[in-house]
Write a structure and sequence with these properties.
It is an enzyme of class 4 (lyase). It comes from Blautia obeum. It catalyses: 2-(N(omega)-L-arginino)succinate = fumarate + L-arginine. GO terms for molecular function: argininosuccinate lyase activity. This protein folds into 3 domains: about 90 residues, Orthogonal Bundle (Fumarase C, Chain B, domain 1), CATH 1.10.275.10; about 230 residues, Fumarase/aspartase (Central domain) (Fumarase C, Chain A, domain 2, Up-down Bundle), CATH 1.20.200.10; about 90 residues, Ribonucleotide Reductase Protein R1, domain 1 (Orthogonal Bundle), CATH 1.10.40.30. The protein contains 19 helices and 6 strands. Helix 8 links the parallel strand 3 and strand 4. The chain is elongated, with a radius of gyration of 30 Å. Bound molecules: arginine. The site of arginine has 10 residues, from helix 6. Arginine (ARG) binds next to helix 6.
Length: about 450
């Protein structure tokens, strides 16, 4: 048991207590960030004349060698240390002796861990954003290739009006684009440096907190030392934004699972992204989509957990806050993994365009357009609605679609119908006439795709 304290204790810590208290099993995940923070701290201490330049260089050399040895596997992070901070400091003292004992001057583990967690979250936000961008690029390809792929658009999971695959996928493009902007917002708001806050009340050493902040790429320094060591808002914001990413992925997965079912047959998930059944030889299951949908609960769980942990904590640091790590780390890894797998799955998925188009035709998705035809010929919309309702009933009786109903039967229900009704209710017309900004019409869709391209180039 190697710990940084003990002077005022007369007994050894109970083994179970030690293990319960220790965080090294999980906070070793940010050894890089811990070393990065220590290096900046030491540079600042030397600049302020608190350490000599020689001490600074010895400490920096020691920290670099620890980093290199951990990365190469030569130095193992073991549970013999209480946390990653103790591990680094103890190893530093082993390596360089007395100057190593000066590393923690003007610092507490409270501001140190607040910094490490911020640095880690900031790095991970960038990785999540990069995964989201790859997903958007994959969606953009599907959109570009499917401006003319007709499919039913649904409301209440009932066929409603025809759209295109580009348009449907475009809806998800918007969601994941907003997710990226949420990541950027969080990064911006959290980007102040807590180091120098000390345990809670700052320090009597003449630290230059702004210099440390600058060295670590922060926009500035946190403004209240008590808040600095006890703020985990940005973790909650990230978990909330990641929950939203998962919610979006999960909705899309749910659709893919439906589309991949024998009943829909809109898509065929690639063999590489499907699994079989141990008993039923015919099965090809959408397990990846199901797992992504399932893991959404896990990320929501992390959000709920940390919100609950934080709600009763009086100022300033309390050990409860150590609970911010495991679930956040797990959630981050889960989200990154899910986005990457999902991207692979959608970009290899085959869309059965013929089945999608036939489904759009067979579900009366052009009924609104038939009513609009009547309106364009002077029939008030409410009457037109009733007339087309009766047409639909006739078609259901006969088991046919609107475009298969003979003109005489149209005329029987309303004499206004002429031969050009078939043109008016064709999938092509139904989609191509919908050219309001944001609608599935091909002209406006091409415009959106061009805007997406511009966005992906600049962001
Ligand atoms: N492992 C602790 C955490 O994650 C580090 C800070 C410990 N500070 C303290 N005063 N015990 O929060």
């Amino acid at each position: 048991m190697a710990q940084l304290w003990g002077g005022r204790f007369t007994k050894e810590t109970d083994k179970l207590v030690y293990n319960f208290n220790a965080s090294i099993s999980f906070d070793q995940k940010f050894y890089k960030q811990d070393i990065r923070g220590s290096k900046a701290h030491v540079r600042m201490l030397a600049k302020q004349g608190i350490l000599t330049e020689e001490e600074r260089d010895q400490i920096l050399g020691g920290l670099d060698s620890i980093l290199a040895d951990v990365e190469s596997g030569k130095l193992e992070i073991t549970s013999e240390y209480e946390d990653i901070h103790s591990f680094v400091e103890a190893n530093l003292i082993d390596r360089i002796g007395d100057p190593g004992k000066k590393l923690h001057t003007g610092r507490s583990r409270n501001d140190q861990v607040a910094l490490d967690m911020k640095l880690y979250v900031r790095d991970e936000i960038e990785e999540i954003d990069a995964e989201l961008k790859k997903l958007l690029e994959a969606l953009q390809v599907i959109m570009e290739n499917n401006v003319h792929t007709y499919m039913p658009g649904f409301t209440h999971l009932q066929k409603a009006q025809p759209v295109t695959l580009a348009h449907h996928v475009g809806a998800y493009f918007e969601m994941f684009r907003r997710d990226r902007s949420r990541m950027a917002d969080i990064r911006k708001r959290m980007n102040t440096c807590p180091l120098g806050a000390g345990a809670l009340a700052g320090t009597t050493y003449p630290l230059d907190r702004f210099y440390t902040a600058e060295l670590l790429g922060f926009d500035g320094s946190t403004r209240n030392s008590m808040d600095s060591v006890s703020d985990r808002d940005y973790v909650i914001e990230l978990l909330s934004a990641m929950s939203t990413v998962m919610m979006h992925l999960s909705r899309f997965c749910e659709e893919i699972i439906l589309w991949n079912s024998n009943e829909y047959r809109f898509v065929e998930i690639d063999d590489a992204y499907s699994t079989g059944s141990s008993i039923m030889p015919q099965k090809k299951n959408p397990d990846i989509a199901e797992l992504v949908r399932g893991k959404t609960g896990r990320v929501y769980g992390a959000l709920t957990s940390i919100l609950t942990t934080m709600k009763g904590i009086p100022l300033a640091y309390n050990k409860d806050m150590q609970e911010d790590k495991e679930l956040t780390f797990d959630a981050i890894d889960t989200v990154k993994g899910c986005i990457a797998l999902f991207t692979g799955m959608v970009s290899t998925m085959e869309f059965r365009k013929d089945v999608m188009e036939a489904s759009a035709k067979n579900g009366f998705t052009n009924a609104t357009d038939a009513a609009d035809y009547l309106v364009n010929h002077g029939v008030p919309f409410r009457d037109a609605h009733g007339i087309v309702g009766r047409l639909v009933l006739t078609c259901i009786d006969k088991g046919i679609s609107l475009d298969a109903l003979p003109l005489e039967e149209y005329k029987e229900i309303s004499p206004v119908f002429e031969q050009d009704i078939y043109e008016a209710i064709s999938m092509k017309t139904c989609v191509e006439k919908r050219e309001t900004y944001g609608a599935p019409g091909p002209k406006v869709m091409e415009q959106i795709i061009a805007e997406n391209k511009e966005y992906l180039k600049n962001n």
